[in-house]
Fold each of these.
Amino acid sequence: MLESLHVRNYVLIDKLDLDFSDGFTVITGETGSGKSIILGALSLLLGQKADKEAVRNGSDMAEVSGTFSINSHDVISWCSDHEIDVEDNSLILRRVIRTNGRSTYSVNGTALTRAEGEELGMLLVDVSSQHAHQSLMKSDVLRKVLDEASSSLDELDSYRTSYSELVAAENKLKETKEMMERSSEEADYMKYCLSELDNADLKVGEEEELKEKLNLQASSEYIAENLSSAQDELKSASSSLSEALSYMRKAEKKDPSLLEYSERLESQSIETEDILESIRDYLSSMSFSETDIEMMNQRISVIQRMKRRFGGSVEAAIEQRESFREKLEMISDSSDVISLLEKKIDKLSKDVEVKAAKLTSLRKKGAEVFSKRIEEKLHRLGMEAAVFTIAVTPLSVPGPYGKDKIEYLISANRGEKTSLIQETSSGGELSRLMLAMKTSMEGSGSVDTMLFDEVDAGIGGKVATCVAKELKDLSQTKQVITITHLSQIASEADRHYKVYKTEENGRTVSHIKLLENEDRVREIARILSGDESEISLEHARKMLGE
């Protein structure tokens, strides 16, 4: 429920603070006084687009804020999804418009986008205006109204879940078949490439090892020549060490303290022999045949060819090899995948058909009750001869919202055939049809606040009295706020606000005030006859039950 509205520097408003209560509230005022401005300010809180031209001349920004008390599970859930803290079941919405065109929107201090604000606004306030009347022309809106009135939303959610799964499975099947068709055309090429890569048996680092061996072969003559010379020198050294050790052993026999030197010399002699043996083995291993060299060059050529064809590196070629293998396996398995998908689609199709039939049944039952209720309301709203029906006809294939075509048909005058409301209804008839639908759905919707603007368009007299009665009845369960030009509607309200203009310091300013007692009598009289004559004042008092 809307509890308060605060407006600063918006169009003709310098400052406005307005408190609301439950029940039935009306706002009246002369044409051009600023009633539409107040509606515009509230619309900003409900996420409508902002216009920088709405900032009052001489101000840098306009600000609108409002407080809502909430009990709706849908609103609380929405706030939770958007990480908005809700304390004491209260929401404070704030909208700021700046002259540079920038606009900000927040709820309980949490910044939101305008689109998010519009989502929340639809959960907080149900607006019936000239723009909203036009929404009756949209088939999606009409379908949603029927689903809400016929309590089929849960069944619709279940249907949409199955339908989404069906569409996803059908898309997957189509993609799989297309992929299989493309891949089959490429299969022979992939098999050939995979065979080449498997035969190449690439290993990371192999090319570098082969190049090192070839470089070694290129320097083998130089290395062998120097190693041979080293070998000769070591042989001579080894012989000299052996003779030196022999002399040390003889001296050691006479002086045991020389044992340490003998052992060190022996160790050196052994190490020299070991080095000599290692050089001898290395020289023998350096022998490369021309065949070995040719094979190494051929292997390097194979590796380089694979690199050029499959990604520029051995790693990339190995990755490509595994990719070919996976794709070929996928092609091999595609038949099984397609078979499983076809079975899944068949099962889901049957499930969708069953749920679509249940949804259709609920809609038809709901349409019969709902259309009868609307027709009765239309009769009470001055359209005594109106015939109203909701047609639910089958479609050949299921869609996102079921397998039904939903049409709202009306005959406003006796003897005329029923036609689509989009084709036949006038502005006044649409206003009454909108009111009939809203009041016929009493208790079905989750929105606590209902705002009516131009609900009195094109009506008067007895019809206006009937409209007033319907709004009064609706206010027993909803907060109803109505902008009106009719005394019949204004006189039924629990609270009555008047919008008026004054001139202050050479500027026009809009104000609003709560009317009570004699002030309200005078306003009703003004609406009745345009003046405050004794006759009109007396008539106003009677309307107010005084």
Note: The longest helix spans residues 314-380.
Amino acid sequence: MRTFFIVLFCVVASVIAQAQARPQSDIIPQPQELQFLPGTFSLPKDITYTLSVDKGTAQVLPSLLTEYLGSKHKLKQKRKEGIILLNNSNAIENEEGYELRISDKQIVIEACSAQGFRYALETLRQLQGDNNTYPQCVVKDRPRFSYRGVMLDVSRHFFPISYIKSLISEMARLKFNRFHWHLVDGGGWRMESKYYPLLTQKAAYRTEEDWDKWWHNRDRRFTTAEEGYGGFYTQEEIKEVVQYAMNLGITIIPEIEMPGHSNELIYAYPDLLCPSATHNNATDVCIGNEEVFTFFERILDETMELFPGKYIHIGGDEAAMNHWGNCPRCKQRMKEENLKDLHELQSYMIKRIERYLNSKGRKLIGWDEILMGGLAPDATVMSWRGENGGITASQAGHDVIMTPNNNLYIDYYQNEATDEPRAIGGYVPLEKVYNYNPTPQSLNEAEKKHIIGVQANLWTEYIHTPEHASYMLFPRILALAEIAWTAHERKDYNDFRRRATHYLPQLEERGHKPYQMNGITLHQSYDSVQKAVVLKFQPERSDAVIRIAEGYSPTVLDKAVDTQTPYIYKGKSPRDIHVNLFANGKKLLPNDKIYRTPAHLAIGAKITYHCKWNERYPAAGENSLIDGLYGTPTYLDGRWQGFTEPMDMTITLAQEHKLQGVELRFMAEREQWVYMPKTVEVQISKDGTNYESIGILEPKTSDKNPRPVFETFTFSTDKEARYIRIKATIGRSEGHFIFCDEVVVY
């Protein structure tokens, strides 16, 4: 019997050892199917390869092998039984799909196109270990979406060709296939035009680099290259980049913005404005002017000569329409075309431009505003204002690319704003990007097929340099790559954290400056059974741990035990807790993060609103402000309740209490028209009829601060009360917001 247990122990230990030794996948994006087998394969310096592919693919593959395997290897083609075997396979139905098998003797790749072989080699590159060893495995892979894109805005700030190429190279490694190049916008015209040379002579360089100073100056002047800030790409440079991208399997989609976002264009050619408009009070071209269509047709002709892909992006977003209604030419156009409003006037232009593009064998893409007034017949919609535009377009049978700002605008902050370089506003951390699913459940299966892909957008109002652009892009586009490629059910954020952490040093080796994933993700809930606030903290980095301590002293966190368990607080008054990240026993953050637990007497109480919250920002409705949950650093998270009229409500506790205080937390985000209230007042009562004020407070926050700011208004008392009335006045004029996440009564 003793011998049996010894043998059993050895068998179990062997199984455990094998399981522990089995390699983990560090591949991004994660393949659809991946099975590791025992053992490794060593690739020698002298490599023989065998091709069993069509003639066209055979011309491409030798250079691909050289590119992916590196110059350290000598490659020689062999008629059969090469170390690497590449086969055309009819069994691979997806044009970008592939199968990769690594045994102890050979690497076999099967695909039905050069692009499929390229993606297999990208996977092979990520599988490479030390000393040219590869784990034995079987990979069966194909993309989830046919369109997998990243957009870079080069109008607000100009980026050199070298950086554009480096970004495209990183995109290719991550199996993206579309680079959306936002070439023209109000900040500057970036594409050389032979037809209209004044576009670059007059509107490629502006008088001020700082976006706020220039954009908020009513003059918004441009100047010469010698005196100004900016730049443009020559047609030869554009051809060079287009070819570079094509060699890496990426199609570039140019954007020629119309009819709005055009103040740089109308600065160079003011005749394209409505008669009453000037370059500093208008951003739209005049749709009633036939010369506008001549202009765009010629510009699009040049664009199509430079960019061979089937898609041309025409913008179509955020037209101000502030001069069309009074413009005689626009009114005449509306009369002649029987257009009932300004949205239909814009739609007329989009449809006419689409017909022109279709006549040249191209397809139109536009932002979701092109839905207003009627969608062009064959247009593809990029849905950026949430998902509603994409849902509407797909239900109407149009192809859609999902790019909602709440999830995929990577010019938004990725960590708390106080720790980050200036951004436009909003909050899109890594986990929020990763968890996005581009196919809304409200669509049926036929409608879901019209969701052809996803894209992240990097607008550059506050991004001046390639280093800052890389900081904003990485690692968030690693998460996007997995959304775009990997089946939703195969995604695993915890495993992705590990792979992304592993990927960061590789990006640095290639000259990028990625965000170091030093954020702390907080998941909150209220346990109604335990009557406790539950806080679950998670580090973004997989090689970091969390330490938590109540109160504060300089050594508390250094001595605290590493934990991934939830923090449960059952108190009836708020408590500050300190949190920090540690790796190898050392703090990663110079300053502790301080979280205040919103435990209080009013959780689950009755609340009566004497005002209306804004229907766009209801949070969780009636109980949002007394649910024991604070909002995150963005007003878009569904926990901040928004008001555009004075806030007025009464909280009724279950019984009378001797109170210590009342706290209300508000946020301000100037760039999104969200400001602190002008005043906040708290009144208390025993009977619900006779109230006394315990204070009126004004904000300490400056409304000139461009970053998101959070301020807690604290009212102290030692009186007994059952009823608490809250009043907060709007801090700015009509149309501006105040946002509150919790009223804490203790």
Note: Confidence is low (pLDDT under 50) at residues 1-20.
Amino acid sequence: MIRINQVKMPLNSTVQELERELLRILRIKKERLLGFEIIKRSIDARKAEDIHYTYTLDAEISGESGYLERNRNRNITKSTAVEYRPREAAGISGTDWADSKRPRPVVCGSGPAGLFCAFFLAQAGLNPIVLERGSQVEQRAKAVEHFWRTGELDPETNVQFGEGGAGTFSDGKLNTAVKDTFGRIRAVLKTFVKFGAPEDILYSSKPHIGTDCLRQVVAGMRREAVRLGAEFCFETKLTGIAAGRGALTGVSCMHGGKERLIETDTLVLAIGHSARDTFEMLYKKGLRMEAKPFAVGVRVEHEQEFISRAQYKTAAGLLPAADYKVTYTAKNGRGVYSFCMCPGGYVVDASSEQGRLAVNGMSNRARDGRNANSALIVTVTAEDFAGAARKNGIFGETAGMHMSGAAHPLAGVEFQRHCEELAYRTGQGKIPYQLYGDLLAGRRSEGYGRIRPEHKGRSMPADLRECLPGHVIDSILEAMPAFDRMIRGFADEDAVFSGVEMRTSSPVRIVRDERLMSSVAGIYPCGEGAGYAGGITSAAVDGIKVFEAVCRSFCRNGR
């Protein structure tokens, strides 16, 4: 295969026109082109008068080796595409798993990390048992809609917990900074397409599925995994682990008020970034953990039409809803940046604990909502957690200091909880929001202005300084004029801030070794919740890596 970079095409070009341009660049006749594939397509909007698509293509041509020897075009090289082969990557070579005397592996969590790990384990014939504290996605969607409508929260099935994980109620972004040396990312995207995602996610520079499409994909993957031998146990919560001589011997879980004991020597911990009670249980059981930096802040909303015009100028009507990315370093040294930007989306109540409130962003596949929203967040560190504990005494003993001087592993959890409790009180159980102009002037909002908020869940005007540390609010306010210089009109006094955004990533890292095992042998911390991913695709990739590690372990033990 030959890789062709920097193929520039008009916005309204067809596949046939793309093929003709490819033949022109390669300087070959159509008969020599055996086929081609779009590897990447991005929008180049740097010049308002020349907004176009830029493609990267892989082509198969006759006489490839000779062509490359004669080629002098630096944009034409040998393709580096790698196809992921699960059995080869996992070291499986003709092994008959059915002869095994070892117990079945258990996967805790059915977010992208757990789902992909279980899916590949099922393909390999290992018949995993999947424990998911929430409902399967069809029932979960109904429970979430009920919560948004009434405010009645189910602590086990909500925006954070249930089949598909937290990403199920998001924009469904699939871009990642992870390098795809082994083809795992491509394998993730191809799996999504196989189960109903649009093919453009295979080549879009910023692929996304949307919450509506992702739900269908997740259900399809689960049904196929079950057909291959996986067992999914919904509304089943991991409550304990048993170990002997430093190695896992079994797990306990609860379903319908009844405890179930499962004998196993393999547990994949794909519990997600909000499984705070599970973090506490695992910490008490002796798993080694560390407090991890993350970021906190608010959601900001603008009208999507404004964002698209600002980004694409006169071409706005020809392109999908525009996104943006803004960053700034405040005078206090803290990074302030946009995160999880949702074009044409909604700010959603993403709470998972009674008496606490957190928000997130969500878009459908069409991204056809009235507003654009994004998190505006500020970095916080383990020193902040411990410092707040010493200063305020509000986080309890879990936020205390170790003898080494490092923050307690669960300090970030308690920091999140404290801010979410403040948000719940400030909004009287509803999403608290404030106009940028009011926050800047130091006054409480009484309602919205020209920009009408798009909320999933009940909301009310408030003062966000009552929810977040002063340095977080001050850093965001300092950054807004800089963001306005990047996107003229961004610092609109009617822009709507909603709080609080606390679930940007896991506040905990469950330490694992080179075998991807925790301090208890047989337990594999996995995905975003364990601190090894940051989004749907990277979590799915980590799930695949853990699948490989589990298979290698079984091979070494004679399975």
Note: The radius of gyration is 25 Å.
Amino acid sequence: MLNWRLAILGFCLSFLLVLPATPQTLVGDRSDQAAIMLDGRELFEVNSLEGFSAADRVALPNKQLAEAVETTEPLEVDVRSQPTAVTLRLADQHLLTVTDRDRPTGVEATDQASRWQRQINKALRKAKYERTPAYLRRAAIESAGLFLLVLVLHFSIRWLRRQQRRGQGRNSILLGLTALQMSLWFWGGYVICERFPQLRLVRYAITKTFSQTLFELGTQAYSLIDLAFLAALVIGLWLVVRGFTLLLKTRILPMVGVARGVQDAIAFCTQYALMLLGLVVILQLVGVDVSSLLVLGSALGVGIGFGLQNIVNNFFSGILILLERPIEVGDFIHVGELVGTVERINPRSTEIRTLDQVSIIVPNAHFTEKEVVNWSHGNPVARIHLPVGVAYGSNLATVQIALLEAVKDHPDVLAYPQPQINFQGFGESSLDFDILVWLSDPRLQYRIKSDLYYRIEASMQQYDIEIPFPQRDLHVRSQQLDQLLGLMIQKQQPDQPHLYYPGQSQAADAQLAEPQTFRRGSQNLKPLQSIPTLHLDLKTLAAQMRSGITIADRRYRLNLYPQCFIGSEAVDWLMETQKATKEEAIRLGQALILKGIIRHVLNEHAFADAYLFYQFTSDDTVETEME
């Protein structure tokens, strides 16, 4: 994540290192001037005149010089003094007029013209020489050698960067190597462009594009180069302030004996004070009126206050935390649902490392607006509670001895204050106790709790003390089945005959209640549970059932079962005609089986709501065994 930041910073620094020198020394120092140039080199600048801009004055001379370089004739500039003006001429053609605005105070026009003459003639001779074959060959060889040198240095720095990354090197070292690596390429490109006139013209055009005015602030004009220069100054200021703050926090303040929390507060205030002071100096250096920015800042303050109120709230909360120090670096705290150690207190947020070794960033406003449990604040000794329950009937004196023996010998439990055993009361399923122990390091409380519970469980087993679990007594009461059958009678259809006759004899009831055993071959099936006493006219019910359900020959797994019906269809018929529930219908079918009126085709199943085949025993059928 740091690579792109380092690349941008290195680009800014390297860009500033290779900028061509210009007469302007400060950002924002702009006047109506233009340069006389040849092959991408600025010779000198001229000022504007009334009715003529500086750019108009240099357009024709620059064109004449470019044409003179391409000729093979040796051309030089002459100075012509006239009563009204002093001029420069090239090949008997007017080149430039020296005006009063062009010469410094105390310098004569002829002296200024002579100085310009020497500069132009020297540039013309150098330009013609740079176009000779001998110079071009030497420049090409030097450029190739320079390119190889930059390439070797590039891979060397790249190797150093990899070594730093593997060794977890400091970010400042990686930053310096990145800036050096990019500066090498810009420097190599700048030097190679300087060797060839055509490339120098391209470089000058690109640089000129960056130096064109983007906007004006008051009387000052600003370009991309100015903004890059300003950004480089701000980044440099941040690096210097950051380094000084780190030195103050790690070296100077510990030597004085300042507490750790006070160190963070002093470093924080120092960093922002130096940054504010440095920004004011930089803005004044580049020509920005700071007083005008104050007016602009007050106008934007209201809007920023509404839009960034959370950030501002967290920022000032961080200042309060550093000043009041309710929490400090190294404290073990509990805020909201987070439990952990304070690792770092930043201006906007605080870093907490949880017991799972996970770093969580918490806004500072949480510590000023919510309750914070600081286990390390003041006296780090803390007491923890361990609730324990024992079964009813346990000897309380034995319980107290067992619990004390379990907790008092733990190495992390303080002997003073002594552990306490409090009887809390009578719970729903247990006698409740609360064990109170004191710890010197609250960070270990969760591990110590686990260790103590292991010890408590072993001690209770040693003293035969029962650890209870929730218990419930369930009492089941059932109403008489006769009432249920009475409700079934009420649900019958009016046109259906009553099948239930409460006047049956006790003998029939007993016969119906006897368990039956189904036999198949020599194997006895499990006896069916007895059906509660039912006063039913089962023969009439069977007759209606025979005419109401489908009785037919059926096949299952290549076996034929003659004159049978399906159990689930019989249940549906009973529910529909007798107004019975499914459970009541199954009971009626089971009563028919117990009475011997119907049976399972293989005598293997009781009556059920399933795809099972049943027959009426009065039918002349032959039992078919399944393969």
Note: Residues 1-9, 11-30, 493-534, 620-627 have pLDDT under 50 and may be disordered.
